[in-house]
Amino acid sequence: MTNDRSAALAALLLRLSLGVMFLAHGLYMKIMTFGLTGTMGFFGSLGYPPVLGAVVAIAETLAGIALVLGIWTRAVSLLAVPILIGATLQHAGNGWVFSNAGGGWEFPVFWIAALAVQALLGDGAYAVKLKRLIGYPAATRAA
Question: For the chain, what is the domain count?
Fold first, then answer.
């Protein structure tokens, strides 16, 4: 049986998983392993403007941080979808299975579905609430 508590924990687990995956792809792989220069060169070799490699690496890193913390979860999840659509299109010619040479399209498509689920679920448990952090006043009632 699903209840509010288990749904909030499920959203947390999904949010943390997606966030760590984005950090692994953006920060660790693209920035720390290949570097921005290497990532830009790779994107250029695919026919994209090289600067798009830096934009994607930074966007994935920021999305990962935001998701792990639970900041703007719905918006971040939806804004990250175009990155995965681009990855899907890039891998589409390699077949379905991601273990194929060049990687297939199964992983980015699943990632899109997971981001859509996260956008529908929202923050879940233990999310940073920016309204509290930046001092928004509590809602007031009309007298």
Answer: 1
